[in-house]
Amino acid sequence: LGTLSALLDKSLVRRTPSGLYALHPLLRQFALEKLDETPGQLAVIRYAHAQCFARLLQTRAPALRAHGQKDALQALDEVWEDLRSGWRWALEASDPALLDAMLEGLATFCQMRGWQQIGVELLEAALPLADAAPRLLSRLNLYLGILLNELSQMQRARGLLEAALSELPDDAAAEIILAHSALGRVEWIEGHYDQA
């Protein structure tokens, strides 16, 4: 705590409006250069960084669709580049569990910000890893289907949402409901009102 206070006093670290801490860009660059000198340590730090932001996404994801949405969006806006970096590192590390932990929050945040195309690109990058991780594949299909629906790519959205429904386990009730709701929107938009 003393070190953090000293860094705050010297303006090398700042406290964001949502209460998170952010490094000064020069200090961040210096730290990355030092970490590059010790590759083993860099991997450990990147993993811890990705886990930290996975926890943040998991903590904030429920508020993105409920009370506290404004605060959750602001907090995630402040760390957007860290979220993307964490996702990219999880991809590089071929870590389906870490990707799965970040998935709902990342996809929902992109959806709420109107960044559907960015969300699709991030999620599609994880598809090659999902073949060996059925839970991740079913959830990727769900959130990709939702984002593609909002991009008016109905045929592709329908296929992914139907695949998600066939793959999601019975104990994933909230995601099954979400998939049915999204598929209903696809049917409605396409004029299949009786199926919506």
Mean pLDDT: 90
Overall geometry comes to elongated
Helix content: over 70%
Strand order of the largest sheet: 1-2
Helix count equals: 11
Q: How do the SSEs run, as a string of H and E?
A: HEEHHHHHHHHHH
What structural category do the secondary elements indicate?
Answer: mainly alpha
Distance between the termini: 55 Å
Rg calculated over all Cα atoms: 19 Å
Strand content: under 5%
DSSP, total strands: 2
Biggest sheet record = 2 strands, antiparallel
Low-confidence region ranges: none
Keywords:
single chain, 76% helix, mainly alpha, 3% strand, two-stranded antiparallel sheet, 196 residues
Written overview of the protein:
The chain is mainly alpha-helical. Helix content is 76%, strand content 3%. It contains 11 helices and 2 strands; from the N terminus they run αββαααααααααα. A two-stranded antiparallel sheet has the order 1-2. Helix 9 runs parallel beside helix 11. It is elongated. The model has no long low-confidence stretch (mean pLDDT 90).
Give the helix/strand layout.
Blueprint: H1 2-9, E1 13-15, E2 21-23, H2 25-36, H3 39-64, H4 69-78, H5 80-92, H6 96-113, H7 116-124, H8 127-130, H9 134-150, H10 154-167, H11 173-189
Antiparallel strand pairs: 1-2
Helix pairs in contact: 3-4, 3-5, 3-6, 5-6, 6-7, 6-9, 7-9, 9-10, 9-11, 10-11
Concise structural overview:
The protein is mainly alpha-helical and 196 residues long. Helix content is 76%, strand content 3%. It is elongated and about 65 Å long.
